[in-house]
């Protein structure tokens, strides 16, 4: 017990060591002090656990302090290499922004902007006008408003349309989206009263019809984004629900989650109904995310009838959910790319990664290996294997996209050890393990990741 604890120096002593003195010349004293204290505390714990096997050496100690200081001053939120093949990876930041979206964020952030100013009249304007006409042009909606994320969009829409009233939802659509978005909870928060109809696997039009009462404010259809019910199933189509709503005078809302603005079926991405189709079917209001299939920044998009959008514009809640100018800049730039489908698919990273063909990924694998191979230790082997990638972000959960991957192996390293070592690099590398192989999917690797990949693989030498 307490082995070597007496060899751990006091803080004052450490601060007088010459490598630490030079750190004090380039960093604020409290920052250096924090690094010293963290390192000494860790050594004390090692000593109490009996894992401090030798007396503390001053050089070693200073090395630890330099490393600790580096990690304290480095940004906590930083880039990661996504080799998982999951394109819309919620834990790794969902969609990457296009170059033009990044440029536009910088433009309006480094300088003042016309965020809420009508330049024609000099009067106060509305931030939402910067994307409203573009959204209407692209989708055919009458009106639009944008908020912080889709959870906020659903909350605002329910609160504005159904507070104190009943909202009819199929039991098959009471979904939970990762990160604790649950339809029944959002409903409660909005003040709407959930009126469940049908069963988990089967809901019929007559279930909606018989649920109608004086208290009914809305029919809500929710996209079952991240799961699929198979077997003996029945659901009411959006066309049927809209028809029924029209007959009974009840508005229809659709929370479609991902929100694809293009029909991607010609690229093999099937099963996602584009936003335009829902609006054409006649839904009164629709909500979707900005950073899933749309490939923009985190945002919630609300499209629909002018009468309803103007009610939502007046909601107090909107002020708390409002979109930031950087998000607005990125969203506008992303939407502009959709004016030409070729631009959208080529320049929006999410769409580019989803639609890239396997042959291109195979060539990319060979090219990456050619560039990486000469820079890494020879015991590391890199081979190309075929496999599948996923869309992610709670979109198209059953769709497998054929892809190519780099299998990485090294003498004396298990796939789990490689995974752990790669995750703890300065620029962490995230891959996956399948059938005893450590794999990086070329679909989600970026050219800018190559130096980080080399650095990670150097560890295996
Ligand atoms: C993802 C999703 C949400 C939540 O959207 P965020 O943009 O993450 O807030 C809500 N509803 C559905 C159906 C979804 O797929």
CATH architecture assignment of the largest domain = 3-Layer(aba) Sandwich
How many helices? The count is 19
Q: Give the CA-CA distance, first to last residue.
A: 36 Å
Average residue pLDDT? 95
Q: How many domains, in number, for the residues? A: 3
Shape: globular
Question: How is the largest sheet built, in terms of strand order?
Answer: 4-12-11-10-9-5-8
| Name of the CATH first level of the largest domain | Alpha Beta
Low-confidence stretches: none
Core attributes:
single chain, about 450 residues, alpha/beta, Aspartate Aminotransferase, domain 1, Aspartate Aminotransferase, domain 2, 3 domains, 7-stranded mixed β-sheet, 4-stranded antiparallel β-sheet, 19 helices, 17 strands, binds pyridoxal-5'-phosphate
């Amino acid at each position: 017990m307490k082995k070597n604890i007496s060899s751990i120096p006091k803080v004052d002593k450490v601060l007088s060591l010459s490598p630490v003195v030079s750190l004090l010349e380039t960093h604020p004293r409290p920052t250096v002090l924090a690094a010293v204290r963290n390192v000494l505390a860790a050594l004390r714990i090692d000593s109490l656990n009996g894992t401090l096997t030798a007396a503390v050496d001053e050089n070693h100690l200073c090395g630890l302090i330099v490393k600790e200081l580096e990690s304290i001053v480095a940004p906590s939120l930083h880039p990661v290499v996504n080799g998982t093949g999951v394109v819309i990876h919620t834990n790794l930041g969902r969609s990457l922004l296009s170059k033009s979206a990044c440029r536009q964020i910088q433009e309006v952030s480094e300088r003042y902007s016309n965020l809420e100013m009508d330049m024609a009249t000099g009067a106060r304007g509305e931030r939402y006008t910067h994307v409203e006409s573009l959204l209407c042009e692209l989708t055919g909606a009458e009106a639009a408003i944008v908020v912080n994320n889709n959870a906020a969009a659903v909350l605002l829409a329910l609160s504005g349309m159904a507070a104190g009233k009943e909202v009819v939802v199929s039991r098959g659509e009471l979904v939970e989206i990762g990160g604790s978005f649950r339809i029944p909870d959002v409903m409660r928060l909005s003040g709407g009263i959930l009126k469940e109809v049908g069963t988990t696997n089967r809901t019929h039009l007559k279930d909606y019809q018989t649920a109608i009462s004086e208290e009914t404010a809305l029919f809500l259809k929710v996209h079952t984004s991240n799961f699929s019910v198979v077997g003996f199933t029945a659901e009411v189509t959006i066309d049927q629900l809209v028809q029924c709503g029209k007959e009974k005078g009840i508005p229809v809302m659709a929370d479609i989650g991902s929100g694809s603005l293009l029909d991607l079926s010609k690229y093999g991405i099937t099963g996602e109904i584009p936003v335009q189709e829902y609006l054409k079917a006649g839904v009164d209001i629709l909500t979707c995310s900005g950073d899933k299939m749309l490939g923009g920044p985190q945002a919630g998009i609300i499209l629909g009838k002018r009468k309803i959008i103007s009610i939502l514009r007046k909601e107090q809640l909107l002020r708390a959910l409002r979109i930031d100018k950087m998000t607005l800049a990125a969203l506008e730039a992303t939407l502009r790319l959709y004016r030409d489908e070729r631009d959208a698919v080529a320049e929006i990273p999410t769409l580019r990664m989803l639609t890239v063909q396997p042959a291109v990924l195979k060539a990319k694998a060979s090219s990456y290996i050619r560039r990486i191979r000469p820079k890494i230790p020879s015991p590391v082997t890199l081979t190309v294997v075929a496999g599948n990638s996923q869309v992610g972000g709670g979109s198209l959960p059953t769709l497998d996209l054929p892809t190519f991957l780099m299998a990485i192996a090294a003498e004396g390293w298990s796939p789990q050890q490689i995974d752990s070592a790669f995750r703890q690099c300065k620029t962490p590398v995230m891959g996956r393990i399948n059938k005893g192989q450590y794999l990086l999917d070329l679909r989600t690797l970026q050219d800018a990741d190559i130096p980080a990949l080399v650095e990670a693989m150097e560890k295996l030498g």
